[in-house]
Amino acid sequence: MTLFIPGPTEVRKDVLAAMAKPQIGHRTVEFRELFSSLKPGLRKLLYTELDVLISTSSGSGFWEASIRSCVQRHALHATNGAFSKKWASVAERCGKKVTRIEYPFGKAVKAKDVEEYLQKGQYDAFCMVHNETSTGVASNLEEIAEVMKKHPDVLWMVDAVSSIAGTKIEVDKLGIDICFASSQKALALPAGIAISSVSDKAYAKAANVEGRGYYFDLLELKKSYDKDMTPYTPSIPHLYALQYQLGMFAKEGLEERFTRQRKNADYVRQWAKEQGFTLFSEEGYHSDTIVCLSNTKDVDFSRIKKDLAAKGITMDAGYGKLNEALAAEGKPTTFRIATMGDLTLAELEDFTQQLENYW
Ligand SMILES: Cc1ncc(COP(=O)(O)O)c(C=O)c1O
Fold this sequence. Notes:
The protein is of the alpha/beta class and 359 residues long. It has two domains: 13-251, Type I PLP-dependent aspartate aminotransferase-like (Major domain) (Aspartate Aminotransferase, domain 2, 3-Layer(aba) Sandwich), CATH 3.40.640; 254-356, Aspartate Aminotransferase, domain 1 (Alpha-Beta Complex), CATH 3.90.1150. The protein is 43% helix and 16% strand. The chain has helices at 13-19, 29-46, 60-70, 82-93, 111-120, 141-148, 171-174, 200-206, 218-225, 236-252, 254-275, 301-310, 320-328, 345-356, and strands spanning 2-3, 51-55, 74-79, 97-102, 125-129, 131-132, 137-138, 155-159, 178-182, 194-198, 278-279, 290-294, 313-314, 334-338. The two termini are 23 Å apart. The structure holds pyridoxal-5'-phosphate.
């Protein structure tokens, strides 16, 4: 099977093999050595000196952890796609007040809007998705960072679930308080762990928040992290895979890894244009880890998807709810091609060639 979907992404056989090690106890010296060996690579990956916590949950765990731990009362959420909308609803389910900066799907979060809302209201945190996986939109973190610097009392929490390890995100330079990713996206690992940088400001805020629970309490994770442990029994095979993959990132070079994925995306964008498709994402904000295209040729992608599955290729025929909404409006639906993780240009060239056979 080769996966060209925006998560779970293709995981190389050598990465899978790295998971197949005998189990060790999670309160042993061996475990602590494994855990501490991950810290420098994760810090490099996020360009940070902060802690990069590991949760043995998927990325949604950090949606809940960030909100439950660091929002006392009121969060400002930018919603510009399926995942940012979901995070805002999770915050409400955690009992917090939520104000939304709403954008249509396909649009990016704009710094001027964030500024306007932050000037008007009092928020514990501003939450946004950097790379909207549903629409292939990457918002401009540098511009938003300039606004956030003027509001130091508001935590900046960024879901970079599908961009960390795919796009350079300089956490310290940008001043992001919480920045997280799932393992099954650009990290090119199986689903099951998530990572997040956490600032001292975020920890300090958490100390005054009631009802943080246990499993997703950032202070609980931090207490164990400082002892090279987790508060609970973690998925140790995932940690071996992460250790191996961080080594592979160092071998490839982080800059080279980002460039490869950008070139993958450039190739798919150019190919799509030549084939007569248009980009769904707003001009100037195209993601380099997922290309989201409007099916302007009205190709039957659900049939192609089934056909390719029989050949061992997994493709995406668009984000379900978005396509339903577009179809109801009589607009072209979307389909997405992942360019992230360990995918190579040669694999994408082969995949797009296969697609061309259908029209
Ligand atoms: C941007 C974004 N945020 C959050 C999630 C949820 O992550 P997980 O499925 O790892 O819980 C996803 C999943 O695709 C995503 O793309």
